Amino acid sequence: MSEAFPRHVLCVLGARLDLSEIERIAAGFGGFVLDREYSEAEPDPRMPEAFEASMAAASFDEADWAAVESHDTVGYLLSAPMMRELAFDTSRRLLAVTAALLRSGATAVKNESSGIAHGRDRWLALADRAADATAEALADRADEALADALVAAWVKRPIHDGQVLYSCGMHLLGAPEVEIEVGAEPPTKDRLIELVAHLDTLASYLLTDPRAEEIEDGAGFRMAEDAPRWLLRTGVCDRYDEDDLFFNPYGYVRLTHV
Q: pLDDT for 191-200, tens place per residue?
């Protein structure tokens, strides 16, 4: 396994947003710092294209696009490089930071470490879901609900490479990426919804089931007790270099047909 440690790089936009305010809010959650080298109190003309490439269209409305177009401040918030056992909680806290920033003047946010962006309302809804689930997870009642909220927030999916659908961002939760074989033909809309549900089921399993720590290449897997059987294939991350923010040191787990 690679010795690389994932880290969050959060891009925060605003209009007349004080960079020191980003820093102050983040400091209240512990473990996050403002990148003073790259943060600037001036607009970045690349942002509309960058947000578009980050699946923003899935949840952006007109106000969100207008916020990106009219920004005049760009801040980059960094987590520390994350050991595997700390990644899940760090990502939970950063989602709370994201909501706090949006409620305090930030107008748009995307994650540079997985290439995903959401509209303001979507970010806040996911943060609320995670907060509610966290309170119950402390009593061991809602681990899956919290995991599902964090996957929805930080994991970009589905990405199609011509043979498989795959994710980018599970490394931020301390887990391998999830993949599923689909072949060269792009799936239909209805089939795509089903396949993404399979990816999310596998992601939840990897994050919440202790048996996931002992997955062996070629093991069987079912979405439910009476569902068709799949095979799990494991491998190393070879899509990105080790110094790339997208690199997953934990590799991938791929669903393949029996």
A: 999 999 999 9
Q: Work out the average pLDDT over 57-76.
A: 98
121: which 2 tokens? 């309302």
Q: Is the peptide bond before 158 cis (omega within 30 degrees of 0)?
A: yes
End-to-end Cα distance, the chain: 27
Backbone dihedral region for residue 115 (phi beyond 0: left; psi -120 to 50: alpha; all else: beta): left
Average pLDDT over residues 178-185: 91
DSSP for 108-175 reads EEEETTTTEEE-HHHHHHHHHHHHHHHHHHTTTS-HHHHHHHHHHHH-EEEEE-SSEEEEE-GGGGTS
Strand 116-118: give its sheet, edge to edge: 32-34, 73-79, 9-14, 106-111, 116-118
Q: Under a CB-based contact definition with an 8 Å cutoff, are residues 186 and 163 in contact?
A: no
> Is 257 in a helix, a strand, or coil?
strand
Residue by residue, DSSP assigns 163-185 as SEEEEE-GGGGTS-EEEEE--SS
pLDDT tens per residue, range 106-124: 999 999 999 999 999 999 9
Alpha carbon distances (Å) from 199 to 41, 43, 152, 219, 254: 39, 37, 11, 16, 9
Q: Is the pLDDT of residue 137 over 80?
A: no
